Amino acid sequence: MKKILIYALLALLAPASAMADEGMWLVNLFESSIYPQMKKKGLKLKPGEIYNERGTALSGAIVAVDYGMGTGSVISDRGLVITNHHVAYGDIHDLSTPENNYLENGFWAATEQDELPVKGKTVMFLRRIADVTDEAVEMRDSMIREGKFGVFGTRKIYGAIEKKYGKDTPYEVSCASMWRGEKYLLFYYEVYKDVRLVGAPPEKIGAFGGNQDNWGWPQHKGDFALYRVYGDKDGKPVPYSKDNVPIKPAKVLDISTGGVHEGDYTMVLGFPGRTNRYMSSFAVAEKQQVVNPVVIRARHERMEIIKKHMEADPKVRLLYSDKYFNLSNYADYATWENICLRRYDVAGIREAEETELQRWIAETPERQTEYGRVLADLKKGYAARAEAVRRKNYFQEAWISPSDALMTGFRVASMVNRMRKEKIDSVRVTDKAFAYALNLTKKMYAAYDPATDQEIFAAMLKLFTDNVPPQMWGDYLQQVYTRYDGNAEAIADYAFRNSACATLEKLCEYFETPRTADQIMQDPLVALAASVSTMTFSDGVRNAEEEAETDVDKTESLYAKALYRMRESKGLPQYPDANSTMRITFGNVESISPYDAVKYDFRTTVDGYLEKNDPKDFEFRVDDKMFSLIRAKDWGRWGEKGVLYTDFITNNDITGGNSGSPVLNGRGNLVGLAFDGNRESMSGDIYFHPEYARTVCVDIRFVLWIIDRYAGASGLIEEMRLVK
Hints:
Elements: H1 2-11, E1 25-26, H2 30-33, H3 35-41, H4 47-50, E2 62-65, E3 70-74, E4 80-83, H5 85-95, H6 102-105, E5 107-108, E6 116-117, E7 123-131, H7 133-145, H8 153-166, E8 172-178, E9 183-192, E10 194-200, H9 203-206, H10 210-213, E11 225-231, E12 245-246, E13 255-256, E14 265-270, H11 281-312, H12 314-343, H13 346-361, H14 365-371, H15 374-400, H16 404-421, E15 426-427, H17 432-445, H18 450-467, H19 475-483, H20 488-498, H21 504-510, E16 515-516, H22 517-520, H23 524-531, H24 534-547, H25 552-569, E17 583-588, E18 592-595, E19 598-600, E20 603-605, H26 607-612, H27 624-631, E21 645-650, E22 662-664, E23 670-677, E24 695-699, H28 700-710, H29 714-719, E25 722-723
Parallel strand pairs: 13-25
Antiparallel strand pairs: 1-17, 2-3, 2-7, 3-4, 4-11, 5-10, 6-10, 7-9, 8-9, 10-11, 11-12, 14-17, 14-22, 15-16, 18-19, 20-21, 21-24, 22-23, 23-24
């Protein structure tokens, strides 16, 4: 209890102060906030060596992968980029075939000509950041005065700023607000769209331990993959062409072969996705008690079905590996997030902070006028909307997204709405009106098994109808439910046997003949999709708030503004919530004692592969080559005193989007890649725990050993700059 009270008091400053290495700091503003602390921790660089707009600082070697879905870094003069295996997982999956299963066997390009183009892949370099706060605030205030701000007001501001400044630059521009509108920044990105897969270890190395080790420690994953970035002869971004050449980047990271040790300085540069550390206690309670339980239950039920089918058929495993990976990643996160929120009493910590906030508000009449009702309105609003939010989440998790065949039904139903609006008499497979739905469906059915999808549909239908009242189902679902006495499996069997949406072949065959809107709506999956309206659930939340005379989102924004102003008045440095813009976080290599009488070392060794090896468990298989290399202790130059280290942990503050981020030592040299957080850090979207939060990283020497000894791709290492 004493520890909890201490953390609660410390949290009155969080996320304002750089306590226990907390914070994802804007890369262009960190010098004035945390640079002295970074130097004390062990940083040997000047601020301009970390970020400058010439591209020659460390930031010039960091890329956002797919607009921030992950992070990568440039490690050779020929545009070689390293990121996580799990960031590349979808690409490896899409490039795989039953004959060339790169997930199972890995992929290594023998030459640059053998590298595999990845359709739609992007990496982008941050080239400049401009402060546009004054202009954006003037625009916002004018829109509010004229009553034109509305739901999309912020997006309108972004659009206007981006249009104005984007027309006279070769870069893509993106406007983002910090602290819910306290500051607006414009980011200039150079976006490359010819990106090719160079190398990736097999899943049994890149994802060793799979779902069982996910978010855990100790781990032993070789979680990395390699891409190469191509441009025209001048190194500029252009679409894919066989004539393109590898870019020559302005900055390349040096790679340290000296390893890491307890207490070593570490920093992470990357593009963290989203955090909500200005979230009220009421929002925390809603996440913990209303939203996450639905997510956990629905996704785990889907995972069990998919896993059963994957274990029964290798073809289904290849089809569903990517879906299963994505499902398990967030389902486990939500599970451990709830455990951490409860264990650390994050809602209680926020309540203590709100007591301090209320005192600050009461100090002046002006604050009372602007913020006096914030906490009372939040309490009332969240209580009023709880059941509506729960139902909306059942709609999202159990109805609209799980079944691919039902999703096709949604797309076809949307096409019918367009037909009626534009007075189109009929459509067939060759018509333009059908092309959009067909193209999306073709891609989806490339990773689809009807039997698996039907079982998912039945399970999620039962979950939905058990937890959402019939008046929200729409007429058709109510009719079918009554006809089959609520038997979800029977409803699924009827729908899949009689729907053109059940397979791509049936869909194309059905639309070989021109079909009217009324005919199409007779299809059971299309009718089911159209029966349950999205508006029913979004309106349910809005109506609940209106009855309570509150607007929760607006009040949360006002709450965040009040917190910001309170901390500003106390002279505390602050970092904004993550929003896929480049950030820097600093810390140290540090072991952990997460529970009473439990202590984990800060790094793991390759011996873990032999200890965990289980040929009967897909997630813990060790292939013959890996087994023999480990038995032979063939570490080459990548070992340390006869030991090959695999992963290590630091106390850096990261979140989703940081996957693949370089972990750098005090001299800015690459020592590892961030790929995970430990389970005790899973409250990190909302609350960073100063003692238990850890970043899990793959040791760069293990990466080099895999490339060199396992893959025999030493030519790639010759491109890199290795330092001690």
